[in-house]
């Protein structure tokens, strides 16, 4: 028979709980059989000791509660990382070691409710089924026209709200392919960007280029009853990136600023917390200069549609490469309402609306700035669009001794006759257009029908557009403020037929001051300048080279990558010919 001996007991001479703190306590028993669990400062202390029995059912319920606390509606996980050390609580749990597999239930069928019980007489009980069936057949209560038939109506007609979980779980692709060789230098969440703030004084004007025409005020009198057709106007408007601008190259050689960019690129960065769709900015550091560039064919050359809607337009899911028989078939009507198609349509509308609403034949005459268009060559014969370039210098310094300036190429589209001298920056205007595609289509964002509501309930239309296109309107407003424009002309343009995306009509035009519109949109220029200053400081800490600032396609996060110097470089024609000869 095996002997049994009691373990040694080390009593504390001072009384109280726990072992003695004196030196006579054996070192080998210190922390013996005590599991280790990491912890963080944010962890909360629950209970010192739990003497309750954690059975299998209670452990399962505890695990279910822990899972539910980290998940949101419909079982989706909340954003954010799990608390450090929170998954190691089971290290101190007590588990039964007895084998309970020999136990089994004799009868696991639920007991039938007795006649007259409260369960059978309830609304959701057995007596509710015949009424629901009768209501479906003849349109009574609980049927197709009643409250109980809402789910059946959605399934039968495919109306808004059907299969919403699939729409919300669709992931977007990044605007640029992230190479494994790229190194992540910084990651900033949008809620951190929203807390930044920097007050900037009025800018200094360096140079002005281009020619602008007068705005046609007759478009201010257009209504839904006197609509005008949107025309295709063949004009050229240049929008090169920062590094390809000869004026910026000349200013950089004189070291007039530290950062160089354009108003389109800068507005995206200043309105970053509002953005949903992905974008990327190429940042090049040469010496003590930073150049914020865009990529050819990137997201800066197009206009988004309903980016901030609760259910924005979606692109069709690509076919499965593992299943050759599967094709990404999209109906012809639905194909014109995808995110990509709507973006191209909105870009076409914005350009032609700006070209059409100016007066090219005097009077009133066009206004030439101090210098001609810097991007129009002498051999080009195609007519130029109305556009003026103003190169403006903003001071981002926090103290008087700090020399940190940013040079921005801004654009204006027209001038308002009789509102002052455009050459002195008076009466300048920017022209933009909002577009309606189909109020009943997926991605419309609950927009009302413009033809019936624009004249009588313009406030409802504007409020819906401010909600669905918050980022786009904020960028337009920031661009107008940066350019020093006095007015923004915004046109409301709709399809002549919802099924045809090639013909459009102008329903109305409104005028608003950029500063007033920024207040309505809750756009903080101080917050935007704070974001620009933060990104500038991050890049100035890095060595010379090329970097890419990428907005995550599915999360409110921006990341700064260090990339090789030849990234996005266009291949030379000679190298392509040599490669073809080598392959032959």
Automatic annotation (TrEMBL):
Taxonomic superkingdom: Eukaryota
Region (Disordered): 1-24, 56-83, 113-161, 301-328
UniProt KW Protein biosynthesis keyword: yes
Compositional bias ranges of the Gly residues kind: 137-149
Alphabetic keyword roster: Cytoplasm, Initiation factor, Protein biosynthesis, RNA-binding
Pfam families attached to this UniProt entry: eIF-3_zeta (PF05091)
Pro residues composition-biased segments: 313-322
Region annotation RNA gate: where it falls in the sequence: 299-313
Biological process per Gene Ontology, one example term: cap-dependent translational initiation
Entry GO MF terms: mRNA cap binding; translation initiation factor activity
Keyword Protein biosynthesis: yes
Cellular compartment(s): Cytoplasm
Biased composition (Polar residues): 56-71
One cellular component (GO) term of this entry: eukaryotic 43S preinitiation complex
Predominant subcellular localization, coarse grouping: cytoplasm
Family: Belongs to the eIF-3 subunit D family.
Free-text comment about domains: The RNA gate region regulates mRNA cap recognition to prevent promiscuous mRNA-binding before assembly of eif3d into the full eukaryotic translation initiation factor 3 (eIF-3) complex.
Role noted for this protein: mRNA cap-binding component of the eukaryotic translation initiation factor 3 (eIF-3) complex, which is involved in protein synthesis of a specialized repertoire of mRNAs and, together with other initiation factors, stimulates binding of mRNA and methionyl-tRNAi to the 40S ribosome. The eIF-3 complex specifically targets and initiates translation of a subset of mRNAs involved in cell proliferation. In the eIF-3 complex, eif3d specifically recognizes and binds the 7-methylguanosine cap of a subset of mRNAs.
Quaternary structure, from the entry: Component of the eukaryotic translation initiation factor 3 (eIF-3) complex.
Name the record gives this protein: Eukaryotic translation initiation factor 3 subunit D
Species whose genome carries this gene: Candolleomyces aberdarensis
